[in-house]
Give the backbone structure.
Amino acid sequence: MENSSNTKVLITGALGQIGSELSIALGNRYGSDNVIASDIRDDTEGRLSGNGIFMHLDVLSFEEIETVLAKYGITVIYHLAAMLSAVAEKDPQRAWKINMGGLYNVLEAVRKHGCSIFFPSSIGAFGLGTLLDGTPQDAVMRPSSMYGVTKVSGELLCDYYHGRYGVDTRGVRYPGIISNGAMPGGGTTDYAVEIFYAAIREKRYTCFLEKDTSLDMMYMPDAIKAAIDLMEADPNRLHHRNAFNVSAMHFTPEDLAAEIKKHIPDFEMDYNVDPIRQKIADSWPNYMDDSTARREWGWKPVYTIESMTEDMLRILRKRYDEGLL
């Protein structure tokens, strides 16, 4: 897919943490009239107000998806609608239905209409038995969470549709995402977002993961960059498709707290470990090897833990001072 005025984009799950910011970025890139943001929820907070077309869309309805593709002449779908790791463990049956049923419907619609599709996988696709330090592109993938099972299954399903039907499927394995926009929606790495809000508001945070839990992380601008860069990459360079490891930084809760204390010296953090999320985190990589993405489509992150922390605190402090936080 190239950056052109002929690009017509549909985003599912557009009110989620990634979707709300990706919708704005794609609107700025292709023109807001060329981007359809959709979600099963209503945009009651006006999160996407003034940024193009927003509509209600249930990915479990094939008919709804197909109607939107035909009506707007969609050429590419960013399929983000899914239940995240911690929430999915509370209702794994529903998670399977939404994560896999929704993806299947979208792939079938894409197959019929000739669109491209971006499907985000995750570090949650890995599990016990995976090399945790420098996890390679092609590795053992036996996740212990329903979220992870749906991500592995989703990768394989996308590979099948590419091999069997020639569908242009592409995706990345995201690490934990840190954002100053939409709040996270029930993931295992949510602490890395919540900690910044707590630092600004109360100068104190209670972390639900153990202090030495090392996890791959990425700042939202880099997550958006990865998705767009991959979808605009020359397909002839892509020997892998679903999904590329992408990494930016990795740290523990203690590391992040120490970085915040450089800016807020009286910030304090204690711990109340959530056993469900801790078990999930322990099965995920400490950091991934993303050399394949760098080689095949030029992936390169911008932000480090230092620059990300400085930017997060600057933006959130401004909102706090304006009474918006």
Remarks:
- Residues 261 and 267 are 6 Å apart (CA to CA).
- The chain is about 40% helix and 15% strand.
- The domain at 179-217+248-286+303-321 is CATH 3.90.25 (UDP-galactose 4-epimerase; domain 1).
- The chain has two domains: 9-176+218-245, 179-217+248-286+303-321.
